[in-house]
Amino acid sequence: MRPIIENIGYQFGPGLAWLLTSVFIFLRYAIPASLVFLLIYKWKRKAWLSRKIQQKFPKTTQLRHEIAYSALTSFIFGGMAIGIFILRKLGYGELYFEIAEFGWGYYIFTVFFMIVAHDTYFYWVHRLMHHPKIFRYFHLVHHQSTNPTPYTSFSFHPLESVLEFAIIPVLTLVIPVHASAFFLFTLWSIFFNVLGHTGYEISPSGFTSHRFFKWLNTPTHHNMHHRYSHYNYSLYFNFWDRVMGTNHPEYDRQFEEVVTRTKIAPSPSRPLAQFPTSP
Q1: Nearest 5°: phi and psi at 24?
Q2: Residue 117, CB half-sphere, CA atoms under 13 Å: how many?
Q3: Which residues pair with 96 in a beta bridge?
Q4: Is residue 145 a contact partner of residue 58, using CB atoms and an 8 Å limit?
Q5: What is the pLDDT of residues 211-270, one digit of tens each?
Q6: Cα–Cα distance, 106 to 84 (Å, whole number)
């Protein structure tokens, strides 16, 4: 049985397949991002204000900017996804569609392998994009959101979008991967990306010093990256930042400051407290 993208391509041609795949990718990101946004920025805005990492809210212009670039990112991702199937037809890549071909054990292994490989890839590519000579061409668009929202998750310059997706075709050239394993991996990536950009901290006090949980990143970790830029480069795990010494030195303290706040009563007559904007 052909995968859905190939079926669309056979029936409607590669152009429409690209468009439909892009719409699917956009909705797969936009629906959970919008649900999270409605929950914490609208319905629970006051009740959960104490957990807002930066005590201010983004302007509508920022949200429009993020959604527009997210749509462009989805279009690029859709084209590159079609490219994977074209490469497969040309005899390149190890994408497969029958789980029995390699078994469930290998299937589960590939999901975890892709998560770990992506985490490593992201850290080093992310640091590369912060090089002064290329930052403005690749990564500036994403960093224009200094106070990120769930919609920041896909807000990339087209060049960064290509780099963000490039790990996926590379993986298909390295190891056999079931198509649905890729789907699970991308769901995990979207979930963690949206979570990291919420602007709200959900973890309990002591999380960043716990012997196990300290190896997982928090929304505070990535929020600080959007403010301080040259710290906190890692994605899912706090391994490379710890090994390379690129965690912000105030990460643990600022995390605890957020999660131990008492409830804040918002007042339109006074500005809300801010963290300092420089290290």
Answers
A1: -60, -45
A2: 19
A3: 178
A4: yes
A5: 999 999 999 999 999 999 899 999 999 999 999 999 999 999 999 999 998 755 444 433
A6: 21
Per DSSP, 131 falls in state S
DSSP secondary structure, 219-273, as one string: HHHHHHHHHHSSS---SSBSHHHHHHT-S-TTHHHHHHHHHTPPPP---TTSPPP
Domain-by-domain residue ranges, the chain?
Answer: 4-259
pLDDT computed for residue 271 by the predictor: 41
Residue with tokens 């999380």: 207
* Residue 156 DSSP SS3: coil
Please count the other Cβ atoms lying within 10 Å of the Cβ belonging to residue 50.
17
The pLDDT of residue 272 is above 50: no
Burial of 17 (0-12, 13-18, 19+ CB in 10 A): buried
SS3 93: coil
> What are 57-82's pLDDT values in tens digits?
999 999 999 999 999 999 999 999 99
| CA-closest candidate to residue 95, choices 180, 202, 198 | 180
- pLDDT at res. 249: 96
pLDDT tens sequence across 81-103: 999 888 888 888 888 889 999 99
Taking the C-alpha atoms of residue 215 and residue 236, their distance in angstroms, rounded to an integer, is 9
Q: Per-residue pLDDT for 4 more than 60?
A: no
Cα–Cα distances in angstroms (integers) from residue 38 to residues 8, 10, 238, 258, in the given order: 33, 38, 29, 21
Question: What is the SS3 assignment for 177?
Answer: strand
Kindly list the distances between the CA atom of residue 8 and the CA atoms of 4, 21, 78, 91, 95, in Å, as whole numbers in the listed order. Answer: 6, 9, 13, 20, 18
